[in-house]
Amino acid sequence: MSVTIKDVSNHASVSIKTVSRVINNEKNVAEATKSKVLASIKKLGFKPNKSAQSLRSKRSYMIALLYDNPNKSYLADIQNGILQVCKKTGYNLVLQECDYEDKNLSNSIINFIEDFKIDGLVVTPPLSDMDDFLSNLEQANIHYSIIAPSTKKVSSPYVSSNDYDASYEMTEKIISLGHKKIGFVKGHAMHSASSLRFNGFINAMDDYSLNRNFDWIIQGDFSFESGFQAGEKIFSSSEHPTAIFASNDSMAAGVMKSAQMKKILIPEKLSIVGFDDSPTAEQVWPSLSTVKQPVIEMALHAAKLLIGEFDGLTEETVSKEFQSEIIIRESLKNLN
Amino acid sequence: MSVTIKDVSNHASVSIKTVSRVINNEKNVAEATKSKVLASIKKLGFKPNKSAQSLRSKRSYMIALLYDNPNKSYLADIQNGILQVCKKTGYNLVLQECDYEDKNLSNSIINFIEDFKIDGLVVTPPLSDMDDFLSNLEQANIHYSIIAPSTKKVSSPYVSSNDYDASYEMTEKIISLGHKKIGFVKGHAMHSASSLRFNGFINAMDDYSLNRNFDWIIQGDFSFESGFQAGEKIFSSSEHPTAIFASNDSMAAGVMKSAQMKKILIPEKLSIVGFDDSPTAEQVWPSLSTVKQPVIEMALHAAKLLIGEFDGLTEETVSKEFQSEIIIRESLKNLN
DNA sequence: TATAAAATAGATATCGTTGTCAAAGTATGT
DNA sequence: ACATACTTTGACAACGATATCTATTTTATA
């Protein structure tokens, strides 16, 4: 039926084991032998049987994506990036949804890994921030790479984005357009990105000697509804800001709705800025100025890092911080 | 290390093969033997090794999701539903992105299936509409279940939604609120849902003896941009409709933007209605009235159907049409 | 040149299941 | 009581790779 190692070994007149060595890029195979085997493999169209490999080598050639994130668009991008690497390397991606509040999370994940012999994990926020969980994984000897960890350990590979810098720059941009009264809607307290984004804002405000008005600094949770509530609070204060920076686009849209219902013209009377460049950012009117992280590339790199851990990819595979891009759309007005 | 069949067979004092029979629910095992074995399995915490099963039985215990759909939210829901079934049945989900315009699609999918010994496919729009592709799969003896097929074959299990009826009802609803001049933005021509939705609209208009104005019936492609362009066209005609029904939410948001840029008040001067209940529908202002399909449930059922094909689930598993729900939000005004 | 060390290649056991086939046990019909 | 069919069970091979260990050849070192 299908071509096996044995067929290849016959065709190339070498032993089965030698073919196996070539497949697995083991050393101590003479160049001549190697190319002879590779030629036979190509000629016969041989592809190793994953199940057999897995059975014998205790590896599944599957990696799992761990997530507890309601943001569908973010997740889709993450998947996209990982899948690109999987396709190249012959791995498969398994999705594993988690509940970050589950007290038994570590155990159930460790069980899952062992049951399916999953080779490694890509961990996304907010799980990336749970240091206990991560160290449990580590103790169980599980490979993982982290997207946007709160503390950048040397021990495990990670990718991150410059949330702080991007937030600082965006705030600078808002200030440079003449805004002095700026509000801020904070993200979900469990996400480390929230504090990074907030700190970027605050530090920029300080550096430009602008006043923090705590009536305009509201705790949100990344949801549209919380953004709307933040807007309601801000607009109930005696004075209004000229700009509001929300920690993500959903909340920015919520703020926008609140303003629009109060007939506050955007961007004439109020500028609004978001973060993430979600599909909604383009589809609301006026369209949202926002910060775009290269999510797909980040996920792609995270997958490379992970697979590199046990497969030894040839490319450079080091933990890396990615640069975000500031996108100016209609919702931000120049007051100068 | 881990518990094997052999351990169970020793513990239960039966042969290895008998344990295997119990695991696989084969018949011709005496009740007494069966419960003895089950007790041992439970006691020892035995779980069959997937790789070994797969190697011997030529099944992977993986199903794949085939998609070529830029709608991240739709896809996320689909995945969600399938994953729920996978978790219960012990299958894994593999993602496979396709290009529906790829002339070689059938072959590359068939190769993929054979390489990874994928047990079956869940096919989503617009691939669901490609009858050639589907019959190629059938000839290659590949199991699949279809979400929203254009032609409901008896041969393969499917799930669908009542797009036509929902569109008809929504149109009726718009009409009942006193609208007589209604525009429509059609969806991507390749999706069979597009024509169903359009026909529902047209037939309702006819049944209520309302005029079709072809200046207000615009071909879109499900993208925000095409919705915006549709708005531009409609608003450049001599007369304006009082309501516009777009075949999905992104296009509705596009129409909305076009209107808002022209200072056409929504919903006072123009009502807008979408389809899908995407996250955007809630997050724009005014929020979009729309039609919500039970996408998660549909996907869940599709997965059950598929896995039932080769695993013989106990539950009823028949192809099924799901009912959509009409959601009225701010964007639709009562003219009466 | 002798000898140790390293590189290369192969024979065979093994991973943990399911498939095949034959044997033993049980029920049914005459 | 015996032939026949069906149910139940088990022994052993097989799936297609990798691991281990051994044998041979090549290279390095004294």
Q: What secondary-structure arrangement, pairings included, does this model have?
A:
Two copies of one chain form a homodimer.
Chain A: H1 5-12, H2 16-23, H3 31-44, H4 50-57, E1 62-67, H5 72-89, E2 92-97, H6 105-116, E3 120-123, H7 131-139, E4 144-147, E5 158-161, H8 163-176, E6 182-186, H9 192-207, E7 217-219, H10 224-236, E8 243-246, H11 249-261, E9 271-273, H12 279-283, E10 290-292, H13 295-311, E11 320-322, E12 325-327
Parallel strand pairs in A: 1-2, 1-3, 3-4, 4-5, 5-11, 6-7, 6-8, 8-9
Antiparallel strand pairs in A: 10-12
Helix pairs in contact in A: 1-2, 1-3, 2-3, 5-13, 8-9, 10-11
Chain A binds a DNA duplex (30 and 30 nucleotides) through helix 2 and helix 4.
Describe this structure in words.
Two copies of one chain form a homodimer. Chain A is α/β, with parallel strands linked by helices and 336 residues long. The first copy, chain A, folds into three domains: 5-48, lambda repressor-like DNA-binding domains (434 Repressor (Amino-terminal Domain)); 57-161 and 295-323, Response regulator (Rossmann fold, 3-Layer(aba) Sandwich); 163-292, Response regulator (Rossmann fold, 3-Layer(aba) Sandwich), CATH 3.40.50. Helix content of chain A is 46%, strand content 14%. The first copy, chain A, has helices at residues 5-12, 16-23, 31-44, 50-57, 72-89, 105-116, 131-139, 163-176, 192-207, 224-236, 249-261, 279-283, 295-311; strands at 62-67, 92-97, 120-123, 144-147, 158-161, 182-186, 217-219, 243-246, 271-273, 290-292, 320-322, 325-327. A six-stranded parallel sheet of chain A has the order 2-1-3-4-5-11, with helices on one face. A four-stranded parallel sheet of chain A has the order 7-6-8-9, sandwiched between helices. In chain A, strand 6 (182-186), helix 9 (192-207) and strand 7 (217-219) form a beta-alpha-beta unit. Chain A starts with a helix and ends in a 9-residue tail after the last strand. The model of chain A has no long low-confidence stretch (mean pLDDT 93). At the A-B interface, helix 4, helix 5, strand 2, helix 6 and helix 11 of A face helix 4, helix 5, strand 2, helix 6 and helix 11 of B.
